Amino acid sequence: MYREKETRPNIVLINVDQMRGDCLSAAGHPVVETPYLDSLNQNGVQFTKCYSACPSCIPARAALLTGMSQKNHKRVGYKDGVPWNYEHTLPGELAQAGYQAQGIGKMHFYPARSLNGFNDLILHDGYMHFERNRKNDILKIDDYLVWLKDKLGMDADHTASGMDCNSWTVNPWPYEEQYHPTNWVVTESIDFLRRRDERMPFFLWMSFVRPHPPFDPPKNYLDMYLAKDIPGPFVGDWARDLKMTKYLEHNAFFGNLDKGMLRRTRAAYYALITHIDCQIGRFLIALSDNSLLDNTAIIFTSDHGELLGDHHLFRKGLPYNGSARVPLFVKLPESWKGKKNEKLSALCELRDIMPTVLDIAGVKNPASVDGKSLLPLITGKEKGGVREYLHGEHALGEFSNHYIATEKNEKYIWYSQTGRELFFDLNKDPNELQDLSGTPGYQKRIKYCRDLLIEELKGREEGYSDGKKLFTGRKFVNVLVKS
Question: 50, 54, 88, 108: which one is catalytic?
Fold first, then answer.
């Protein structure tokens, strides 16, 4: 569907990997510098209570791609090698409506080259354990690695820093900055602006692997943060009895870490974020140079967070804010009426991004979408919230968990294998330092949240709930099979 003069907005979805919701200067972080992302906030809105219901790469991206809850996209834990066969996807709906849909960077689909509605994909999914373990030719499914070897020779590799892709260890990027995967995503995105079909509006999904480990920022960004006073992690009173290892393995989920090592880890993580921010600035300049900025909507988010030593925990998959709360900025085209430089506290989730984008594009939602459009809140046509509560979860072995986050800014957590409960009042305690599960004044709200979870899990194949109570120790699954 071509128009002589296209007036529908272009849409850019910027998706980073493993970025905490609090790691932005616009979110009040005391150290992290994100001037270009802050500019999106100044010209748009920031959602301060956005969550990833299943905070790891695969299930979170399923929610982004489909607009579904985990109950319907079926991925409730991390499991590679399960085909992505969704009838309705965000790029697919836009492509059918006449958008040119381009994906660049990390998609984490299976099979890796499955388009899932995109017109074209240019891929770099990171280390790709699953494909390596199957002894596949990685060059067939990693466009960045082909590009890097073409630029620097066949010995060049994105693992050259020696850092593990799920580790807290730190080493600067060993090549010139222009060859970093972060720069590559922007380089390819700018090239897309050159070669797109100008008769069509475009949807561009820019997906960065960082700040997910390896913690390998270019040296100048790392030096910048090593020179700063890096605040330590948040450690709750409830975390003091966590099982600790004497020495934290390089890719562990929990344990004590030498203060010097932890400081370098946090510095490198912040450095990767500022590096991404500067590259986003480079892309915004390219949009302006191509006279596209005024008619382009920009959405920025992450698939999940990084615990970064909070409560002696690392990585993701757990229900605490460092892992489960993500940034979300929405900037509408300049000519549109909408709120600017505002923070909205509506409780939202990654599933809400697809209906929001479709709403911006003027495309009807398919019936399969569970999320809600945030556009009425952004334009001021509606006030209030999106939902009363959100159910989140993640299969994670003995740490398999479920959580209920409420519009009133509370969080109830239930560990399915042990039965442990925690409850936080995030209005008074945003860093989840004090567990209120045993506090008399909160028992009514705890029961309210527990009852919501009992209802959410009723009839699920794991057998966690009969509709009246929760059952501990039932076998967890990573992918739901039953409808």
Answer: 108
250-272 in b/e form (b: 16+ CB < 10 A) is: eebbbbebeeeebbbbbbbbbbb
CATH number at residue 91: 3.40.720.10
The tally of domains found in the chain comes to 1
Is position 57 annotated as part of the catalytic site? yes
Q: Quote the domain boundaries for residue 212.
A: 10-387
Catalytic annotation, pick one of 23, 50, 54, 57: 57
Tokens at 410, concatenated: 């509370």
Mean pLDDT by 10 residues, the chain (483 residues): 68 98 95 96 95 98 98 97 97 98 97 97 93 84 96 94 92 98 98 97 98 97 98 92 57 81 96 98 97 96 97 95 98 91 96 98 98 97 93 96 98 97 98 97 98 97 97 98 78
What pLDDT, on the 0 to 100 scale, is given for residue 246? 45
Output the six-digit token pair for 84: 């992505």
Q: What angle do CA 178, 182, 184 make, to 5 degrees?
A: 55
What predicted TM-score, i.e. pTM, was given to this entire model? 0.96
- For residue 4, is it within any domain? no
Token pair 């380089």 in the structure block, residue? 187
In a domain, 5, yes or no: no
304 a catalytic residue = no
396 assigned to some structural domain: no
Q: Is 444 a member of any domain?
A: no
